[in-house]
Amino acid sequence: MIDTLRLTAEEAERLIASGEVSGAELHSAYFDAIGERDEELHAYLTTVAEADGDGVPIALKDVISTKGVETTAGSKILAGYVPVADSTVAARCKEAGLPLLGKTNLDEFAMGSSTENSAYGPSRNPWDPTRVPGGSSGGSATAVAGGLAPWALGSDTGGSIKQPAALCGLVGLRPTYGTVSRAGIVAFASSLDQVGPITKTVRDCSRLYEIIAGRDPCDSTTVDLPEPVAVPEAEDLKGLKIGVPKELNEAEGIEPGVSEAVRAAIELCRELGAEVGESTLPRSVEYGLPCYYLIAPSEASSNLARYDGVRYGIRVGNGDIRTMYERTRDAGFGDEPKRRIMLGTYALSAGYYEAYYGQAQKVRTIIRDEFRAALDQFDLLVSPTSPTVAFPLGAKTDNPLAMYLSDVLAIPPNMAGLPGLSIPCGLSEGLPVGLQLIGPQFSENLLFRAGHALEHALEFDVVPERLR
Amino acid sequence: MSWEPVIGLEIHVHLKTRTKMFCRCELEYAAGENTRTCPVCLAHPGTLPVPNVRAIEMTILLGLGLGCEIAENAIFHRKHYFYPDSPKGYQISQYDEPLCVDGKLSLQTADGGIVVGIVRAHLEEDAAKSVHMGGAQGRISGADRTLVDFNRAGTPLVEIVTAPDIHSSEHAKRFLQLLRQTVVELGISDAEMEKGSLRFDVNVSVRPEGSDELRTRTELKNMNSFNFAAKGIDREIQRQIQVYESGGQVEQETMHFDPGNESAPPLRSKEEAQDYRYLPEPDLVPLAPPRELVERLRGELPELPGARIGRLAEEVGFETAEGLVTSGRDRLYERVAGDRREVANVLMNQFAATGIDPATVNADELAKLIEARDRIPRQAFTEALAASGDKGFSAEAYLGDGQITETRDLEPLVDQVLAANPQQVESYRSGKEGLLGFFIGQVMKETEGRANPKVVNDLLREKLKA
């Protein structure tokens, strides 16, 4: 009997290698779990019954194009859209022999922090189904935490991997911008989108990152990794200097239980041999979120222009072309994409560009410089991933600004193009708290090393209490 | 008051790459509709542009040919507009940091010449082709339905923008001819207007003679020939002068030139001007051409039409020189020995009338023919020119003395050849008419090329009919 709730990808691979189970058996064990629990959790939008590959099965966020398997980005406008080609990351998973379990739920076009913006209904947090799993990669986090996939891929534009990983008690990596191909990933904000793993352990995370990372000729913004991915072994933090940015750790809205768990983890860093000191990122935290909400919607307004009913996806109306465009986009997009398209269109308009998009890009340079200065002093920076634990469904749906603030701590390093790893560091009110580790560009190996040592010392149980 | 026209041009040229600008679909003019497409040029979700390196090199080559500076860091921008021919909802183009800037192209004129500034030459992708079915004007509004062919979507396109340095329709036309020839000779484009691989818009304004102000300009679009352009420009100049002289103001507008009814109805006015919401293309990194590449391409520049016109003008005058160069006949001119003015004259007149591709002509034989021009009947000269592109063309056959043109002299030879080749005669009569050439060849061999081919041809046809 395979315990899908507890089995890590690494253990699963060992079982396959030793011949104890076949890839197909493993796939079907997860498929059974999906049958059992996904009606409640709604992690998946599409499932794939046949195992294609002998490796550890995987779930992919539904922005990741999969040849022959419907890819909707959680939007009605792409209902029924079946890609004719795999995205580069899906192809790399296939080459590595990882069979696809299915496509996971998300906020429409990855815009949101709870999956409540999905056109197909929200996912539910396996720790407490009355609460959100976070978002936008909430379906991938729900699948892994709920034992419906051993590991999964999400995408992170403004915290969409780190935040749901935190809210579901999982490990999530937002890689350095440019290390993972965006070819075939339904675009939200091109200068920020990155695909990354959501897993139960840091070692699993490093292994999945190894499979997907590296230059891709189909994505001009990718680069070769400066060093091979190293699966972490060390269980201490000796020789590491860890900075605690004041503003990221004392931001308004951080729940006391979250602060407490993070403070304990920071103390643990010291015990594991790290040198810990206070750091500061005043402008990054103050301006990160506002800048993000100019840049991301601007790029989104551009990236979503292609959904016009002409070539694929839904089409509404047969009359005049303008009317067809308007009706298709009105019927196809939900409120959040519409809101961001309007924001972005405004910010890019003649006469406003310099004041908004142009200005935000300048501030982005300041944020990058500020992080660089902080990371000159420290090897890594730490903070909570999310100011809160998982919140109840519906708690923030009427207040977009409150929802946006869910990512106030995850966004600043993203604006600087930096990698961030979220690992579970404890519970607050019975719900997982995420610790965000931020490093310089291409420091994934360092993040894995530190994350693994902390994970080992923390002994966090990734199986939701109610499912144990 | 006397008025001076001020004219600037925007020229679009399709690059002759094997594949598209941002995907690897092959470019093939006249391929079946929507057979040269892929997820990238159809703008499927998540697809990303991958620049065509050859297109970048060709643009740099053009920039160098036009004396431009090549940017160290060029940026691609997204230019947004909603239209079915724009699959992504934006065109990838260049905006404030184009690949080539600040060049010039000199045009020789009777009174010395003008220098036309090249403000910029940038690289972009072409749109798809919309075909509007039904409706009044073949335009999208009012059409019953619109069909889109995405084969053209993503074709690499260079836009060349001139400074408003041209002051007559005649110079505009000649500048366009010179630029076209330059582009063709650089090997970067076919620049054929019928195929849409060369298109241009004209900006026109007028100002009082002697002033250097720039008044409101209008844009003429949809020019489909150099002659129409000249006509349209003249008409627009007259219209603007009339507006000013009757106390009015010229409105900034775009006009759609309709050669059929000789009018240019306004397409859109300034109030409707589009906001393209330019955005630096986040899917592409800045284009930083290595200096070694630029220098290598500079070394590959051929002698360009402008320079050749200058050189040939000393021999035959600039007008003929320009005609030779822009018609692509100057290379042949240089290979044909003989009196320079006479050779040029024949090439620009009688030879031009034949429509023969100059590249197929044996220059030595043509030189002999031109040299003998005054000694042979005009008819024979014309016939000889018409045959000058044929394989194995020999001038001898047409040069009166020695040529056997009389039927009575040739008939016995023809009979002799037919008698000697009964099998071929049989084959010809059973339908292999291609053998005519064989018989002609045999007669030519007998006469050492002196037989008049037309007479031989007629005789053979006559006799083989029987």
Specify the helix fraction band of chain B.
25-40%
Secondary structure tally, helices of chain B:
15
Radius of gyration of chain B, taken over Cα atoms and rounded to an integer in Å: 28 Å
Average per-residue pLDDT of chain B, rounded, comes to 89
* Backbone structural class of chain A: alpha/beta
Helix-strand topology string of chain B: EHEEEEEEEEHEEHEEEHHHHHHHHHHHH
- Compute the separation of the termini of chain B in Å: 78 Å
Strand order across the biggest sheet of chain A? 1-3-2-4-6-5-10-11-9-7-8
Shape of chain B: globular
**For the largest beta sheet of chain B, what order do the strands appear in spatially?**
2-5-6-9-1-10-11-12-13
Show unreliable segments of chain A. Answer: none
Helical coverage of chain A, percent range = 25-40%
Provide the low-confidence segments of chain B as ranges. Answer: none
Give the tally of β-strands of chain B.
Answer: 14
Rg of chain A (C-alpha, Å) = 21 Å
Largest sheet of chain A: 11 strands, mixed
- The run of helices and strands of chain A is HHEEHEHEHEEHEHHEHHHHEHHEEH
User: What separation lies between the terminal Cα atoms of chain A?
Assistant: 15 Å
Major beta-sheet overview of chain B: 9 strands, mixed
Percent of residues in β-strands of chain B: 15-25%
